[in-house]
Design brief:
alpha/beta, Rossmann fold, 2 domains, six-stranded mixed sheet, 12 strands, elongated, disordered N terminus, binds beta-D-fucofuranose
Length: 336
Amino acid sequence: MPTRRPTRRTILAAFCLAGLSLAACEKKAEDKPAEPKAGATGTPAPKLRVGFSQIGAESDWRRANTESIKGEAAKRGVELVFADAQQKQENQIKALRSFIQQKVDVIAFSPVVETGWEPVLKEVKEAGIPVILTDRAVDVSDPNLFVTFIGADFVEEGRRAANWVVKATGGKAMVAELQGTPGSAPAIDRKKGFEEVIKAHPDIKVIKSQSGEFTRAKGKEVMETFLKSSEGASINVLYAHNDDMALGAIQAIEEAGRKPGVDIKIVSIDAVRAAFEAMVAGKLNCTVECNPLLGPQLFDAVEALAAKKPVEKRIVTKEGVFEQAQAAEAIKTRQY
Ligand code: GYE
């Protein structure tokens, strides 16, 4: 853990304001006895500062994730330096570099794509700042470039979606797939898990597959092109890598004069409130849960690092699967 904390600078600034030279300021600061430990003498411990680079606000999942992180930081009195990357890796890299300059205690981020992180993560490591990955993983050759990865098992989510398709169709389906952001861990892994299961079912065929970038607008647009294509009429199952794309696709299906949830059965991932509403309306058939409320686990890890306690390398969130018949009851207790 780096020891640089804003309080040290605040102390220096206070001495300087008192009219001492900078050298004297530094000297005075050095002469000062070590800062007391939290609670030891009733002096408040210096506030932890965490830099967090978020991907953007592409989905209901992401918005709930941001709220959870901001809310938990506020609750624990952690100073959060929050940066929104608007879906761009280059913005995340800039944010990470700025966190180094600001000498935050811990850097956490949700990487938009898996690759291309090695150089900046080496810079962070050289600066002695620990890195926590939340939500999405990175593909790096040196696992010591980050302390832990907190998030769901996306391959398992893909398997769960496929198992539902097998069950709901008796192992015979013409599937259209809406993939997430190209190159992102959830898009890669949810595709992989799905394919792993349907391999054993030759009558389940993925006849269309394209990215809808995890947004409603793009999900709708891509579904429209699927439906207008020569194979459009034969699509009878939609697998969307997130609920938002499924919700956009539902509109496209209705506009094309077909019945979502009936003519085309739909399974998606996340289990956000709007997905439950669509299930209650009979338009979505199943949602596989992916929990965005990562704030508590993230700040547990931050506080453990600050206290020099060990942190698990992989922290997997627990999740379930919800079908239409459970929706009306389950929606009452959904938190996102
Ligand atoms: O499923 C999707 C979001 O990385 C798990 O990103 C997350 C995914 C989530 O935009 O809705």
